[in-house]
Amino acid sequence: MKYMMFVCTDTEPDTDKSAEPDIEVWVAENDASGRRLDGYQLASVNAATTVRVRNGELLVSDGPFAETKEVIVGYDLLECADLDEAIEIARAHPMARAGRIELRPFADLG
Q: Name one Pfam family in it (predicted).
């Protein structure tokens, strides 16, 4: 099952002082196992553009889709047996402590 893993900042990071996981190790391990299919860090929210159409009119605005302090800073596309495996992968990501991780399965359109 494929999961999109959104990597987000958080205004209330973990206060645990123990060493955070190394992102390069996390990427290497999950790439080697075939569980991470793709992933990349995103540019700053200053580079974001939001596109909407309302009553036939194109509305383009600078910035992310919502006024919030938490923003999506990257993504990873995962291939997992189930949600439990996706959670185990996400919990080892450094941003699970410094930010937050959102897991969302791809819709079954078939």
A: YCII
